[in-house]
Design a protein that fits this description.
This protein is α/β, with parallel strands linked by helices. The protein has 12 helices and 14 strands.
Length: about 375
């Protein structure tokens, strides 16, 4: 895990740094689209992998950005499950941002096939491609706080009063929180592969629940789903007091770029602005958008939430281990190592919901009927 100091910037004869090409995997995703945008703003030649470059719903927002920003963009087809699929896109790149990974937290039927294999094999395929590509000097992996902790009650099992980068999720499994298990296994694997060579270094970012505006009007990642459900009445009766570490998607993109571009950056980085319970999120939404929306009205005590959760397809164990337990993160290392500052969660929540309204993904009561 030892960090080496490689600069991803070459120097022109004039002394001006010019960026080498950078690869972004899963470039059409909610988080990665913002990483692509920031790279294009800085004049990078961005190699973007997507599963189907011919699908305009996945690529048109990326192409539109490239049309108006200084950098250049090329699209490549790559699937996490295909060995060798990333080599062509990576050729000549100094920087690799590996963000692609399935994000499915509900209704998972086959956790190994849907989550664990794509996350771990995909990480292996991308990092082995980095081993075969002499130009690569740094890989930034999009991990998650899900690789730091499993259930919120895990906080009671550590000595510190908050999670930091020294903590690893030891409680998730194929059956319990398989998304978190997949992210943990993928990050562990990445550190093992990185530790066996010394040409490129690995820097990891561990974002919390990512909120904020999406650059892709067609995208519907899990965090967008949550905001939609809060606004469209699906959770009208109430929510449990489950806490999340919230971070803005624009800050997550900035964290990726800093992790890629700061030569001395090293290790894991918790990207969380602040921790908030679902009832506080609802309170913010109600105070900004008024009570005309069917926002959840009550906070269900843990025992009540556990009683009714199976009706909503949520395992009782999940509620028991997560509702009503405090969650805290220490984001000091991201601030010192990457110089990060974070938008307040309120801004992310409000901007996110406003965009869902503008895009018609949450219907304003009384409109359009
Ligand atoms: P997203 O919009 O669903 O993006 C996921 C990306 O992974 C998409 O581009 C998807 O491609 C790609 N992908 C999935 N399976 C693939 C496969 N077999 N082969 C190739 N590409 C595949 O979700 P996101 O929120 O931006 O997530 C991006 C990264 O951030 C993930 O690593 C995720 O674990 C991490 N993260 C997200 C959050 C959050 O709250 N959103 C928090 C912490 C960490 P398709 O569009 O073709 O499916």
């Amino acid at each position: 895990m030892m960090a080496k100091m490689h600069s991803p910037l070459r120097r022109q004869q004039s002394g001006e740094p010019i960026p080498d090409p950078a690869l972004v995997t899963g470039a059409n995703g909610y988080v990665a689209s913002w990483v692509v945008r920031r790279l294009l703003e800085r004049g990078f030649d961005v190699r973007a992998t997507v599963r189907d470059p011919a699908d305009p719903r996945k690529t048109e927002h990326l192409l539109a950005m490239a049309g108006e920003l200084p950098g250049t963009l090329s699209l490549f087809r790559a699937d996490l499950m295909e060995r060798g699929g990333f080599d062509r896109a990576m050729a000549g790149c100094a920087l690799v941002f590996h963000s692609a990974s399935p994000v499915v937290v509900r209704g998972v039927e086959d956790p190994v096939r849907q989550l664990i294999e794509p996350a771990t094999r995909g990480t292996r395929h991308v990092l082995e491609a980095a081993n075969r590509t002499p130009s690569v000097r740094r890989v930034v992996l999009t991990s998650s706080v899900s690789a730091i902790y499993g259930d919120t009650r895990d906080l009671g099992r550590i000595e510190a009063d908050r999670f930091d980068e020294s903590h690893w999720n030891e409680t998730s499994s194929e059956r319990h929180l398989p998304y978190s298990y997949a992210k943990t296994e993928a990050e562990r694997l990445a550190w093992r592969i990185a530790g066996k060579q010394d040409r490129w270094d690995l820097v990891v970012v561990n974002p919390g629940l990512v909120l904020g505006p999406s650059l892709d009007p067609h995208s519907s990642p899990e965090s967008v789903q949550l905001m939609r459900e809060l606004g469209n009445g699906s959770l009208r009766l109430g929510v449990a007091h489950v806490e999340f570490g919230i971070v803005d998607v624009r800050d997550v993109a900035e964290g990726h770029l800093r992790a890629g571009l700061i030569p001395e950056a090293s290790g894991r980085h918790i990207l969380v602005s602040e921790t908030m319970g679902l009832p506080e999120v609802v309170q913010i939404l109600r105070s900004h958008f008024g009570s005309r929306f069917p926002f959840p009205r009550f906070t269900a005590p843990r025992v009540v939430a556990a009683l009714f959760s199976p009706l909503l397809g949520v395992p009782r164990k999940l509620v028991w281990r997560n509702a009503g337990h405090p969650l805290r993160f220490d984001n000091a290392y991201a601030k010192s190592d990457l110089g990060m500052s974070f938008r307040p969660a309120e801004e992310s929540i409000v901007d996110h919901f406003r965009q869902l309204l503008d895009d018609g993904l949450v219907e304003e009561p009384g409109r359009g009927r």
